[in-house]
Design brief:
The protein has 2 helices and 27 strands. It is mainly β. Strand 6 and strand 7 form a beta hairpin.
Length: 442
């Protein structure tokens, strides 16, 4: 995402981490860490989405994202870059090519993605094109390993300048509900030297499985030192409403609120706008700095999209699979004009799709069904169009795990009393029909 507010966050935090991580380039590795923090949980969920593509009538594939800058003089949009996504016959993105405009479209970067037999992302190689030789030069390589629940357990990161020796890794720890609770970053100076942890992020949830607090630590002389944390709040529709960032600049346990993000949704529960603020130290008031405004095609459900799965990039859709329910078409960014103190258009992303039919899909039709009650506490009932037919039901949690699978018929009550409170996705199918939806467990 082309977001200078995010860049400000990274710069401030990286200044604090300077000196803690000395064996690698500070800016490069910090950006890798932030991309891991931002994307790993989403990769877990989208991995699961890839694995169940054979159960979904997915016909809209994200082919490219066009990046444009706004020309205020003639109020026009000028194309600046484009990312193009290439998929295999199973709907898995295998390559991302990035172009920039310099009197003509110039290919500059690419990401190569590799999967195992379970459709899980196992390797990602980020390369840049050498202007001198015309050859691709690998810059960063990610190797993913998974635990028994098929959630990412470890990421090994290697760099071209380090002759592909692993110098960084990320260890992910989950609770018994599959929620990410800790992410630890480590480094080592040589191939045979031991790993040395240098940063840690902790995630705390409430009883309704919402991510309430995020804490960031760096390793001091002998203990972890907390230097920032984020507090999240949610609205009555179980959507994140505000995220506020606190920072202890002098390490004196004198926490100050630095910035916050507010989230606005439309009547379809799609994320309609993000509003970014910083605190004015003089007036102690919140001042707007940036905003982003999204538009959708409400006729296409999010579950019917083919999307890429990878770490990093300027792609809004990465990390936002829980924030909108339909097909994202455009995201416009505005930033504050220091002369007028007004938000003004700066750039946008346009999402281009095509209709595809995967080889594993055989002309599935849409199944009509109602679920009640919703929200529910103990039982839910599905009213299906074929009362005597048996269907397969899958219930999937927010981490992408199938936690329940069984046969059901129309008007059959299903016990959900053992499920934790939260939002779940269900998938109902037979040989010729399919339906996806969501329900809330109180």
């Amino acid at each position: 995402m082309k977001n200078t507010f995010t860049l400000l966050v990274l710069l401030l935090t990286s200044c604090l981490l300077m000196g803690q991580n000395t064996s690698l380039d500070q800016g490069h590795t910090f950006e890798v860490k932030e991309n891991l923090k931002k994307n790993l949980d989403q990769v877990n969920r989208l991995n699961a989405k890839q694995a169940f593509k054979s159960l979904n009538a997915i016909f809209h594939q994200l082919d490219s994202v066009i990046f444009e800058n706004y020309n205020e003089n003639d109020q026009s949009w000028i194309e600046d870059g484009i990312d193009v996504y290439h998929y295999n016959s199973k709907g898995l993105c295998e390559e991302v090519k990035s172009f920039s405009w310099d009197e003509e479209w110039v290919l500059v970067d690419q990401q190569s993605l590799f999967y195992d037999e379970n459709y899980l992302l196992v390797r990602q190689v980020d390369s840049t094109l050498s202007e001198e030789t015309g050859n691709w030069i690998p810059m960063v390589e990610f190797d993913f390993s998974y635990n028994e629940e098929q959630l990412i357990g470890e990421v090994l990161i290697s760099y071209q300048e380090d002759m592909w020796q692993y110098y960084e890794k990320s260890d992910l720890i989950y609770d018994d509900q599959g929620r990410l609770v800790e992410l630890i970053m480590s480094e080592k100076e040589t191939e045979n030297s031991p790993w040395q942890a240098y940063s840690k992020d902790g995630y705390a949830y409430d009883d309704e499985v919402f991510l309430m607090n995020e804490e960031s630590y760096y390793l001091g002389q002998a203990e972890w030192i907390l230097f920032s944390f984020t507090v999240n709040s949610y609205n009555e529709n179980w959507k994140i409403q505000q995220s506020e960032y606190f920072y202890d600049e002098e390490q004196m346990q004198d926490w100050e609120s630095q910035w916050k993000t507010e989230f606005v949704y439309d009547d379809q529960n799609n994320l309609e706008a993000e509003l970014f603020y910083v605190i004015d130290e003089d007036s102690n008031e919140w001042l707007p700095t940036e905003s982003s405004d999204m538009s959708y095609d409400d006729n296409v459900d999010f579950n019917n999209l083919i999307l890429p799965v990878f770490i990093g990039g300027d792609l809004f859709i990465q990390g936002y699979d829980l924030y909108f329910n339909h097909m994202l078409l455009e995201n416009q960014y505005s930033s504050i004009n220091p002369n007028t103190n007004e938000l003004e258009l700066s750039d946008r992303e346009r999402y281009i799709y095509s209709e595809k039919e995967l080889q594993s899909i055989h002309h599935l039709s849409t199944l009509e069904a109602n679920i009640y009650p919703n929200p529910a506490s103990d039982f839910i009932t599905f009213e299906l169009e074929s009362p005597n037919k048996t269907f397969i039901l899958q219930i999937i949690n927010l981490q992408g795990q199938v936690i329940l699978e069984e046969s059901i018929k129309s008007h059959q009550a299903l016990s959900i009393s053992k499920l934790s409170s939260g939002i779940y996705t269900y998938c109902i199918k037979d040989d010729v029909s399919i339906m996806n939806g969501k329900f809330v467990k109180n």
